[in-house]
C-alpha cells in the first residue's frame, strides 16, 4: 500500500506522483529526488517500482519476502538496507517488523512490513530542515535509520527498569521463586530479540563512515557516526543487562537451594524430636515383667515428663541453632 510519494528539489516538495509516474517526474527536472513510502506492498506495486526505478531484482526479492537479517548491501551506486522495527506487544513480548530501504542517487524507497510504526514524523522533520534535505536521499536514509535506532532506547529502558524491580523484590521473604525465574526468562527473550536487531545493524553501520563508504553516504559520514555511537550505547546496555540477568538467575537458584535447605533442617529437627519421644514410648511399651516403672504409682507421669523434657530440650537446641 502506498503511504506517500513526493518529489523534492532544493529541499522542498515540488510534486506528488503516483507509482506509475515516478520516472517521468524525475525526467522532468534535472535535479531533485523522489521519496516513496510503502507499507505491506503487493507484488504488483514492487514490480512497478522495480520497473520505474530500475531496482535490483535480488533486493526486490528480499523486500518481497521479508524476514531479513539487519543488513546493508551495495548494488553498484545503490544501497539496500534492512532494519528491524520493534514494538511492545500486549503480553510484554517484543513484536518484530521490518523496514527495507532502497537508496539511489535520485530516489529513496522505504518498504515497511508487519509494523504499525510509521515514519511520518521523519518526513515532517526532514521537510522542516530543507538545508539538510538538499543533501538528497543520503540524508533521508540517515533520518530513517536514526528514527529506527532511537526507538530501541525506550525498549531497553523498560527492560532495565523491570530488571531493577526484580532485583529489589528478589530477597523479600516468601517470594515466589518460580515467578521470578519466569520473569527473568521473559526479560532474557526480549533482550535477545533486541540484540538480534542491534548487533547486525551495528556491524553494517560501521561501514557507513570512515574509510571507503557508499557514494550516497559519503557527505553524511558524521551523521552515520552518530547512529553508530547510539548503537554502541544500546549494545553496551544489552551486554550489561545480560550479565545482570545471568547473575540474578544464579542468585535466585541459590535462594531456592537455601529455602530447600531450611525446610530440610526443619523437617530433620521435628523428626529428631518425634524420634526421641517414640524411642522413650517404645522402651516403656515393651511390657517386660522386670520393669519396675510399669508397677510404680508415678511411672506413667514420670514417662510423660521424661518425653516432654527430652522433646523440650531438643526443641530449645534446634531453636538455638535456628533450625526451627
UniProtKB/TrEMBL annotation:
Subcellular location(s) of the protein: Cell membrane
Q: Which top-rank group of organisms is this from?
A: Bacteria
The UniProt entry lists membrane topology as: Multi-pass membrane protein
Q: Which residues cross the membrane?
A: 267-286, 298-318
Matching entries from SUPFAM superfamilies are given as: CorA soluble domain-like, Magnesium transport protein CorA, transmembrane region
Q: Which family does it belong to?
A: Belongs to the CorA metal ion transporter (MIT) (TC 1.A.35) family.
- This protein is called Magnesium transporter
Q: Name the source organism.
A: Roseateles saccharophilus
Amino acid at each position: 500500500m502506498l503511504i506517500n510519494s513526493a518529489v523534492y528539489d532544493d529541499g522542498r516538495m515540488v510534486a506528488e506522483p503516483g507509482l506509475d509516474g515516478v520516472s517521468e517526474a524525475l525526467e522532468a527536472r534535472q535535479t531533485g529526488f523522489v521519496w516513496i513510502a510503502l507499507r505491506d506492498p503487493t507484488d504488483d506495486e514492487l514490480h512497478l517500482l522495480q520497473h520505474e526505478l530500475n531496482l535490483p531484482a535480488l533486493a526486490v526479492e528480499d523486500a518481497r519476502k521479508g524476514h531479513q537479517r539487519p543488513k546493508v548491501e551495495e548494488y553498484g551506486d545503490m544501497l539496500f538496507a534492512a532494519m528491524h522495527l520493534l514494538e511492545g506487544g500486549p503480553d510484554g513480548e517484543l513484536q518484530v517488523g521490518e523496514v527495507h530501504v532502497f537508496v539511489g542517487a535520485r530516489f529513496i524507497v522505504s518498504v515497511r512490513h508487519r509494523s504499525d510504526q510509521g515514519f511520518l514524523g521523519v518526513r515532517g522533520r526532514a521537510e522542516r530542515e530543507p538545508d539538510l534535505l538538499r543533501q538528497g536521499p543520503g540524508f533521508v536514509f540517515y533520518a530513517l535509520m536514526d528514527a529506527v535506532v532511537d526507538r530501541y532506547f525506550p525498549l531497553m529502558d523498560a527492560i532495565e527498569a523491570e530488571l531493577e524491580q526484580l532485583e529489589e523484590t528478589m530477597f523479600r521473604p516468601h517470594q515466589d521463586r518460580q515467578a521470578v525465574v519466569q520473569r527473568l526468562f521473559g526479560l532474557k527473550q526480549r533482550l535477545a530479540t533486541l540484540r538480534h536487531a542491534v548487533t547486525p545493524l551495528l556491524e553494517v553501520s560501521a561501514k557507513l563512515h570512515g574509510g571507503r563508504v557508499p557514494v550516497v553516504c559519503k557527505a553524511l559520514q558524521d551523521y552515520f557516526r552518530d547512529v553508530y555511537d547510539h548503537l554502541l550505547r544500546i549494545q553496551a546496555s544489552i551486554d550489561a543487562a545480560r550479565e545482570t540477568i545471568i547473575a540474578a538467575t544464579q542468585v535466585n537458584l541459590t535462594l531456592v537451594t537455601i529455602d530447600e535447605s531450611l525446610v530440610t533442617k526443619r523437617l530433620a529437627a521435628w523428626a529428631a524430636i518425634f524420634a526421641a519421644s517414640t524411642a522413650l514410648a517404645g522402651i516403656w511399651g515393651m511390657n517386660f515383667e522386670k520393669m519396675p516403672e510399669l508397677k510404680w504409682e508415678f511411672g506413667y507421669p514420670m514417662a510423660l515428663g521424661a518425653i516432654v523434657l527430652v522433646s523440650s530440650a531438643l526443641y530449645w537446641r534446634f531453636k538455638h541453632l535456628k533450625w526451627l
